[in-house]
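Retro notes, structure queue

What went well: the backlog is down to a handful. What didn't: a couple of records were mislabeled last round, so from now on we paste the full input next to the output in the thread. Example, using Hpt domain-containing protein from Alsobacter ponti:
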Amino acid sequence: MTHRQLPSPDLFDPDAFATISEALGRQQTTDVMGRLADQIAERLGAFDQGLDALSRHAHEILNAAGMLGFAGLARACRALHDKVRRGEEVEREMVALAEMRDRTLALIAELRGRGGAASE
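Corresponding output:
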């Protein structure tokens, strides 16, 4: 069995992932990640939905992402949501959110392919 290096801490919090994985078990963790991936793709897949809707969707996703250890996506969602709420420019936050969305979806696919294990 090979050992894979964990993703960078700007993307993933292995301790948070381990905590939820221990509580739910591997299969349910894998299922929850699948549902989160679907929500990310549906709600953050396109940014042509208007800032208020995008901000609302980012806010809906940030808690689940953080709880599962996808810290980078949670931070990006929070940053966008907060700036929209304050009426500030969000171009930089939208770029960061798109990057974290794509990196998180790739990581979720990898983790699900390993049956919900952060390392093997």
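Agreed that this is the format going forward. Reviewer comment attached to the example: The radius of gyration is 14 Å.
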